[in-house]
Give the backbone structure.
Amino acid sequence: MWFQIDCGLANAVTAAAELCGISPLEFSPDVRQADPRFGDFQANGILPYAKAHGLNPRKIAEKVVEELVKDENFSKKIEVSIAGPGFVNFRLSNVFLAEWVNVYKSEEDYGAALCKIFSGKKIVLDYSSPNTAKQMHVGHLRSMNIGNSIYKILKFCGADVIRDNHIGDWGTLFGILIMMVKDSSLNAAELSLEEIESLYQRGSALVKNDILALDSARNELVKLQNGDQENLEIWKRINEISQNSFDELYSRMAVEFDYTLGESFYCTKVDRVYRELMEKKIAVESEGALCVFHGSHERFSKQPFIVRKSDGASNYAATDLAAVLYRTEKFCADELIYVTDGRQRDHFQQLFLTVEEWYLAFGRKCPEMRHVWFGTIFGEDGKAIKTRGGAPIKLTKLLDEAKARALAIVEEKNADLDDDEKDHVAEVLAVDSVKYADLLSNRTMDYVFSWDKMLSFDGNTATYLLYTIARIKSILRKSEIDLAGVEADCLETEEERNLVRQLTYFPMVLAMAAKELRPHHICSYLFALTGEYSSFYNANRILSDKKNVTIRRLAITMRTLSTLETGMHLLGLETLERM
């Protein structure tokens, strides 16, 4: 069947090339979307193959095309041509496009086509990972949001994904907090997260200027690390309060995890890491600390990867190494993916180099490791988003502000909705808009947060997509036709063709987003699809006087809807029946 990620063209070109004596091991068809002037898809792989072997690419292309058109089933539905030095172009027939509409009817159909990409691969995805004892602010949005979308995309493409929230629930800050709780004679069980954060800020300022306070905080931390019961109870309560706050926000953002294994979980596992790194002389003592140097690396030969501090305490590097060991031994992970901001690139480069050397030394299979880093969110003034007082904006406050603005739009556009539905629509619009604005740009780029653009009905926004989806659902409700089993016959108009051709690109876009771990590809595609649907809708009467035309256009409309909703779901967004 030709209905695969790229309409089966990659397989067809590979098979034809093999009949021409080209080994599949040396050849990649490189099928991608074509310039519409030349076709719908284009295979570019012949040029690099010919160059590598000193051959004429045009002649190779001619032989490959000759083999392709021998298959009558193929040649009847797909027109093949050669452009330039050896680009092979494919133009899908209207009959083929109608068949596509009838094959890809639902999210499940797309999933069945894509699930083989990562089938059998086990991945641990590390994202969000806030520090306890602090409220999440706007800076925590990207890891949570990008990680959630990447999880959905990878799972949709067949991977077995474990979602791990590696929270920061251990370390120096707890020495300060425990000291402040005791000195203030406060009951930790009755504190709010806001009060805990305020205590830490005051305590942090105190230890900077008071050596006795600093010694007291260090003493409380040592007691905690040695298992002091009172300090453990305070620590547990602070983490419990923090987690409850996190969970409320995760619920609102529709973000979930399979495990929440923080730094404290790995603190008892770092001794094995130290022992093994020293045994193979991967880590050495330097100025009292245990460090790893990577001699062959230009910077990291001198820049140490400190895995144990000079005072004997563990740190991020130690617990991250212990986490790698746990994830490969306990979860049997083939791949580890970390979603953090770009400022941590050095840390993860050093972590990955250390793991490779460590695992090789012990004959272990090293997992594939990827750092999915992202840029910064700026305000419209070009500076990091902050409150008037200069503090980071709390993420809950940001969502509340988005909802208030969304509710004003709902009141203006559809005042007939009852209050509960208005509230629901405003909440979905608010959360979706914040998420979509964050996912829209290539994740490695910084972006500017703009309320007006984010909630606009014009341009590439969640608001525009949600409106298009709601409008399509309204059209289907008004059709008064039993939509079960509706299928398309041969396409007729240019707008029908352009829209369905855009639908055929969707699996390829998802495959690209999955392989590159860049959700923005889906955002760009969905916007292009809504544009094609608008052109189709404006030029073609859907509820036509001719039944077969009505059925065909309803089928195309339904497939557009299922594709839009599938894309939205993979971005972690909810859709609406009405707006």
Q: What stands out?
A: The longest helix spans residues 229-253. DSSP finds 23 helices and 13 strands in the chain. The first strand starts at residue 31 and ends at 33. The CA atoms of residues 152 and 569 lie 8 Å apart.
